[in-house]
Specification:
- The chain has 332 residues and is of the alpha/beta class.
- It has one domain (5-309): TIM Barrel (Alpha-Beta Barrel).
- Helices cover 32% and strands 12% of the residues.
- The chain is built from twelve helices and ten strands.
- The chain has helices at 5-8, 53-64, 85-94, 116-123, 136-143, 147-160, 187-202, 218-226, 230-239, 267-272, 291-294, 306-309, and strands at residues 16-17, 23-27, 71-75, 98-103, 126-130, 172-176, 208-211, 254-257, 263-264, 298-299.
- The strands form two sheets. It has an eight-stranded mixed beta sheet. A two-stranded antiparallel sheet has the order 1-10.
- β4 (98-103), α4 and β5 form a beta-alpha-beta unit.
């Protein structure tokens, strides 16, 4: 796999500083039942890294000492494959925190996960589900044969439990990624297309669609290098940069925790091995700090950060600005 960090270090990005930390994003491990082309984590079935019980307890201690944090955002790999996933969810919900599960939908059909959807509903967990297109061929090309069908069945299963239905209180949000080295189309228009197609063809409903940029790191970044497209994609991101998006990028109010408990400014920096900047230690750990201590500190930036500020912007909560966007809508 081609390393992209040396290439990203050549791009200058505006300096940023963290505000109040209100979201803790925790990567529970890199094991996944899928191996997607766009994956910035390089997750897959053969990865073995997963968060231990001791580190999960350190995460809970951080939350208990950090009343500013109101959201626990769980990701992976497939976070549900971690054996401590459910106990962490239940503990966070008992503290009144909002919990987000970044779910790939096909995990709902994995052996031993038959009751996963019901567990998520019983805990009131917000599901953010990957569905990079509403057309079968495009999804299967990006994520593997049969993925689209399993994803639709997963959405129907969640809908049956109340997810995405008016008045249920169970939020179901979908995530779109471009098929290649392009920016996402305008989020609002694409959401209407998703809503119309999924309802008409499959009877599926959802709350919101989030459009995310593909980051030029790990598997996707290496593919760009192999195809000779890396420099062109970086030029696209830089030219589409919008200063207004700097005010809303997720790292201003979020910190990321890797499977060992080390802290990063975001999940992307985590995958590049760029730890949180700290005057007292080279590698801050979730077990040795609080949200209050992290507020106001400088954020480590590099060229990949343009992926969050290009065009309409991109964050874990989707587009940052309405109306802006680019080509490459879902249809091929």
């Amino acid at each position: 796999m081609h390393a992209t960090l040396p290439l990203l270090a050549q791009s200058r990005f505006p300096a940023l500083r963290r505000r109040v930390v209100d979201t803790l994003q925790v990567n529970l491990g890199y094991r996944c039942n899928q191996s997607c082309r766009h994956c910035h984590v390089n997750a897959g079935p053969n990865r073995t890294e997963e968060m231990s019980r001791e580190t999960v307890d350190a995460v809970l201690a951080f939350l208990a000492a950090s009343p500013e944090v109101h959201t626990l955002d769980l990701t992976g790999g497939a976070p549900e494959l971690n054996p401590h996933f459910r106990s962490l969810v239940a503990a966070a919900r008992s503290r009144g925190l909002e919990v987000i599960d970044r779910c790939n939908l096909t995990i709902l059909e994995e052996p031993g996960q038959d009751d996963l959807a019901g567990f998520l509903a019983s805990q009131g967990v917000q599901v953010v589900a990957s569905l990079p297109c509403y057309l079968e061929d495009n999804v299967d090309r990006q994520r593997g044969q049969g993925t689209f069908g399993a994803s639709i069945r997963g959405l129907q299963r969640l809908n049956a439990l109340g997810y995405g239905r008016p008045g249920s209180g169970l939020a179901l949000n979908l995530v779109y990624n471009p098929q290649g080295a392009t920016l996402a189309p305008p989020q609002e228009a694409l959401e209407r297309d998703y809503r119309r197609h999924l309802d008409t063809q499959f009877g599926v409903s959802f709350n919101r669609l989030f459009t995310l940029a593909n980051m030029p790191i790990q598997r996707f970044g290496s593919t760009l290098v192999s195809r000779g497209e890396f420099n062109g994609y970086m030029a696209l991101l830089r030219e589409a940069h919008q200063d207004a998006n700097l005010e809303q990028v997720m790292c201003r109010s979020l910190v990321s925790v890797d499977w060992q408990g080390w802290l990063y400014d975001c999940d992307f920096n985590q995958q590049l091995g760029l730890p949180l900047l700290d005057a007292s230690t080279a590698r801050p750990h979730v077990g040795s700090t609080t949200a209050r201590e992290l507020a106001g500190r400088p954020i480590r930036v590099a060229g990949h950060c343009f992926g969050c500020t290009a065009g309409q912007g991109s964050s874990c909560g989707g587009a940052l600005a309405a109306g802006a966007g680019a080509q490459d809508a879902c249809p091929a």
